[in-house]
Structure formats: structure tokens, C-alpha cells
Amino acid sequence: MENNLLKIIELFELNNISINKQQAEKLFNYYNLLIDYNSHTNLTKITEFEEVIVKHFIDSCVLSKFIEQNASICDIGAGAGFPSIPLKIIRPDIKMILIDSLNKRINFLNLIINKLNLDNITAIHTRVQEFAQNNREKFDYTTARAVAPLNILLEYCIPITKINGKLLAMKSLKTNEEINNSHNALKLLNCKILNIENYSIQQFSEKYERTIIEIQKISSTDKKYPRLKNLIKDNPL
């Protein structure tokens, strides 16, 4: 175990993210719970220890530098807990809501929250369209990782983001086409792209290229958004 904790800390330091031993222990326990649960419920195709640390945990924690102290965050399509759980482990100050439409994922997230004794974090089984009805313009930040193309993601996230709040969209490096297809959605949902940050995650001898698109909400969202799921997917903004 000690060697694994040292490797976690070393990999985080390699990517300019400082964590303490207690946080490394929580990440290690999270990894073990993930692999055990994944043996009977499909959550991730990446299971090798070092790859999970780099491609899931560190990639999630890169978001930390975009987020102010004591912020409220909603993770849309939370899945196995990326970016929300690693981010919460290294940033206990933030308040988080995780939503996902599959109950098996929510069951796993609740297990993690309980086992790791995480505070101010709640996992909810719901669709974003239902969640938005009572949570409009509530969060300082919304985020999503590997959920949907940007124009669809905007309609999911912006209605529940506060005015002047931000969507942090986690993407692969090739985002130009998604951005080009999102101009109409940005206009209709009253938001703008503030920053497109390309970054590399180091894994000793390898590196992985990623992108975070930072989008700010300028003014209130029309209450007709988000539309029903089929309309969003079949006729994106």
C-alpha cells in the first residue's frame, strides 16, 4: 500500500498538483472500490492502477485551478465519479451535486461518498431536464466529462448555472468542430466561451492531450431550456 500511495503522490506532483498522504489514501481506496465494483457493474474500461490515476483521477483534478473557494458545483452525467470524486477529495471546500440517469451509477457514487466519508456532496438519480425544474441558475459551476457534444452539453448545463457562473467542459484535444457547431447554442442560451485551455497529463514516459472549455453564462436562460431529451438529441441547438 505504501508504495502505491507514494506513486499516487509522485504522479500528482509530476502534473503540478500537490496532495497530502490522507488524500492519496482516499484516492487509493477509491481506486480499489472502483475496480471491485467494476467487476460486476460496467463503470470504466480503464482499470490498470497507474492509468486510472493519470487518465481519471489527475485529469479530474486539473479542474481545481478553475474553481474558486467554497463554490457550488453540479457534475452532469457523473458516471463513475469523474471529475467529481477526485476533485472533492483534493478540494473539500467545494459543495457538489452529482446527477446521473442510471441508478447503478448512483448506487456506486453513494457507496464511495459513504466509504470515503466525504461531506457536502450528494448523488441524485435523475435526468438533467427534471433536475432543472427546481434548480435553475443555482450553481457557480457545472461540469461534465465524456457526456455529449458541446452544443448538447450547453443545453444540459447552462440552465442550472448561475448568471456569471461557468460551465467547465472537459474534452479531448480535437474540439474545433464541436466549438464551430455550438455558436447557435451559445447565442440562444446567453453564454460565451471565455477560454480554451489545452493541457498535457504526464504519465512518466507518456503524456495525454486534453482540453477544458470554460464558458460563462451572461444572462438568464429562457425557461423552455432544457428541452426534452429526444428533442435535444434529435434537433440540437
Describe the structure.
The chain is an alpha/beta fold and 237 residues long. It has a single domain, classed as Vaccinia Virus protein VP39 (Rossmann fold). Helices cover 40% and strands 25% of the residues. It is built from ten helices and seven strands. The chain has helices spanning 2-14, 21-38, 49-61, 84-90, 103-115, 128-132, 150-157, 176-180, 183-188, 229-234, and strands spanning 72-76, 95-100, 121-125, 139-145, 161-172, 191-203, 206-217. A seven-stranded mixed β-sheet has the order 3-2-1-4-5-7-6, with helices on both faces. Helix 4 links the parallel strand 1 (72-76) and strand 2 (95-100). Helix 1 crosses helix 2 (21-38), helix 1 (2-14) packs across helix 3 and helix 3 crosses helix 4. The mean pLDDT is 94.
What's the short version?
The chain is an alpha/beta fold and 237 residues long. It has helices spanning 2-14, 21-38, 49-61, 84-90, 103-115, 128-132, 150-157, 176-180, 183-188, 229-234, and strands at residues 72-76, 95-100, 121-125, 139-145, 161-172, 191-203, 206-217.
